C-alpha cells in the first residue's frame, strides 16, 4: 500500500483545483524525469514529445482522471510540466476576437 | 478517422476550449463526439461514490463503495492556436456530480435531445441553468422520430425564445458542427448585449 502523498510527490493538494480535464500540459525539456515515481515518469514520457490534455494523459496511461490530476499537479509543482488552462471569460468578459476565431474555424470545417 | 501516432499531439501554442455534451442515455453523445473528433473518441473511467460525487483523492478510491462511469471525450484542432475538447457526460440525475465537475472550465454546453423523449433532456438543461453556463439544445434527429415545429419544441422544453435550438444529425460533421456553431454564436451575441460588469 502506498500513501497518495508518496505517489504524487507530496505536492498535489494545493494546485490540484486548477487542473481541468482540458488543461494542456507542456513538458520542460530541460527537466530530468530521474527520481520521479513510476506514474510520474510514465506521464513525462508521454508529454515530452508534444502537448496533450490531462484527459488524454489519463486515457493513454489507463488511469482514472482524478488520479492523473494528482500526478500532474505534482509535476506542475516541481516544474516538470506547465499547465495551460482552458479558455474562460476573464472577469466575466469574453474575448470576442478569440470566440470569433473559433466560430470562423467551425464554419470552415 | 484514422488515428496515427504522428497526430497524437496538439499544436504547441494551442489554447484549449472545452465544451460539454450532455443528454440522456443513447441520445447520440458518443456519436456526436466521434463525428466531430479528429482522434478516435476516447474514454476514461471515473469513479463515483454512491452519493454521485466524483472521487478526487486517492485515499477515497480505497474501501469506499464506488461505481465506475465512462466519460467520452474527443478533440478537434481548429487552428494552430485553438483546440476544441468535447466531453460527454451522462445527463441522468444520478450522474449530476460528474456533470457538474465537467462543466467547470467549460465555454458552454450542448444538450442533445430526442423528440420521442424530450423530458429526458430536462436534467441536463437544469444542470446547465444552475451552473449559469451558456448552452444550446440540439435535437438529434432519429429516423422515425416525430418532427415538430420549433415553437412546439420550445414549449415542450420550456426553452426561452433567445436560447438557441437547432436540429442536427450527429452522424454527419456538416450537420453536427451546426450545434457548436449555434452555441458559439449565441455566446458572442449574448456577450455583445451585456454591459461590462
From TrEMBL, chain A:
<dbReference type="Pfam" id="PF05331">
    <property type="entry name" value="DUF742"/>
</dbReference>
<protein>
    <recommendedName>
        <fullName>DUF742 domain-containing protein</fullName>
    </recommendedName>
</protein>
<dbReference type="InterPro" id="IPR007995">
    <property type="entry name" value="DUF742"/>
</dbReference>
TrEMBL record, chain B:
<dbReference type="Pfam" id="PF03029">
    <property type="entry name" value="ATP_bind_1"/>
</dbReference>
<dbReference type="InterPro" id="IPR004130">
    <property type="entry name" value="Gpn"/>
</dbReference>
<dbReference type="InterPro" id="IPR052705">
    <property type="entry name" value="Gliding_Motility_GTPase"/>
</dbReference>
<keyword id="KW-0547">Nucleotide-binding</keyword>
<comment type="similarity">
    <text>Belongs to the GPN-loop GTPase family.</text>
</comment>
<keyword id="KW-0378">Hydrolase</keyword>
<keyword id="KW-0342">GTP-binding</keyword>
<keyword id="KW-0675">Receptor</keyword>
<dbReference type="GO" id="GO:0016787">
    <property type="term" value="F:hydrolase activity"/>
</dbReference>
<dbReference type="InterPro" id="IPR027417">
    <property type="entry name" value="P-loop_NTPase"/>
</dbReference>
<protein>
    <submittedName>
        <fullName>Signal recognition particle receptor subunit beta, a GTPase</fullName>
    </submittedName>
</protein>
<dbReference type="GO" id="GO:0005525">
    <property type="term" value="F:GTP binding"/>
</dbReference>
